[in-house]
Design goal:
Elements: H1 4-11, E1 14-15, E2 26-35, H2 38-58, H3 64-79, H4 86-91, H5 93-96, E3 101-111, E4 118-127, H6 131-134, E5 140-143, E6 147-148, E7 152-155, E8 158-161, H7 162-180, E9 184-185, H8 188-198, H9 200-203, H10 208-218, E10 222-239, E11 246-262, E12 268-278, H11 280-283, H12 290-313, E13 318-322, E14 325-328, E15 340-351, E16 358-374, E17 379-386, E18 396-399
Parallel strand pairs: 5-9, 5-10, 6-10
Antiparallel strand pairs: 1-2, 2-4, 3-4, 7-8, 10-11, 11-12, 13-14, 14-17, 15-16, 15-18, 16-17
Amino acid sequence: MLRPLTLLVLLLVAFVAPAARADSTFVEIQAIGKAGTAEAAVRSAVLDALRRVNVSKVSAQPGMQQRFDAALADLDRALSAPDVSVSRMESDARTLSSGLVDRLKVLDQRKSADGATVDVTVLTAVALFDAKAVSAGKKTIAVVPFRSSSATYMFGSSEIPAAEIARRLADRTTQALVQANVVTVLDRDFVDATVKERQFVEAYGRTPEELARFGRMLGADYLLVGSIENGGMVVNTQTVEASGYTFSQAFAGLSTSVRLLDVASGAIRWADSVTTSLPNGALNGGAINPIEVVDRLTADVSADTTQGIVDSIAPIKVALVDGDAIWLNRGAGRLEAGQRLAIRGGGVDVVDPDTGENLGQAERTVAVVQVISTDQKKSQCRLLEGDPNAVKVGQLARLLAVP
């Protein structure tokens, strides 16, 4: 193993790697990792190397630290995948890291005396962090706290603060976006602190320019803003006169309005009214705990909101057609074996008969496919319904609900 002085010398050796982007600079550094497995130890060493090389750089700009931490979290997830071995980390470092690591070599690997841990020494070339240069197309999103025109909402006899519903919506949407793994999600505590400091919740929604300015302050590519339009649970109790039997019926619902802003252009990328409800059968006649009702409603709204965002930013598309075998451009983390999707295409132009304006295409389902296997970047499907000749590269694929 090299001494600390040698480590310092290696840290100071910076170079532009031959295969790097023109604006990506890498630093070669030796790092040591310790964990229960060799894979985890190498992962720890690489993350430590990135932190040491970038500690000064990322703290110098507002929002950079959060984007750097989010990028490291993405890298940790990528290197933790079951099919990522130490040898694959070495051979596919750049691809697995989305440009954060140019190359990696394990110099030494040995078990501790008690055999409980593995110590590794690696030599790696890691990027001087540039959010745009190393993101490899993966954008960053900030979920802003939801607003509401009402201070509270009635769920049966309980008065639930709008702030509590808003917090649950933002938390659940953030979690769902992280799990979708198509965007880097800024830390909620950081976003909330900045919102509070700038008193942004009271001001946002005025103009797209204001939204874009705040998004740039956060260091985000996209800004999700939303408002609670209505919500509550109504319980009606009735008595049957003939028998004196009393029963209750309940209905609960939550409506929101959401917008996804592209910070760079100031344009609204996606907007929708997202509404969900729970019928009496799911509410046990209103006997269910109101907080549990709120939890279910916010979970449904967050799932629908996330799906809308993902479809807007990174839609699933047909990447290859080979007879009955169809490959999609999204892999594990987005799709899993057994899921069914409708391939949409074969559309015709819809033209306004009065103005002659092209209103877009009226798409139809040309095929239904089922996922049979996935890897990190793609999924292989088999055709269940439709003509394979009607399936074309570039057509959209939409997940079908489980019957």
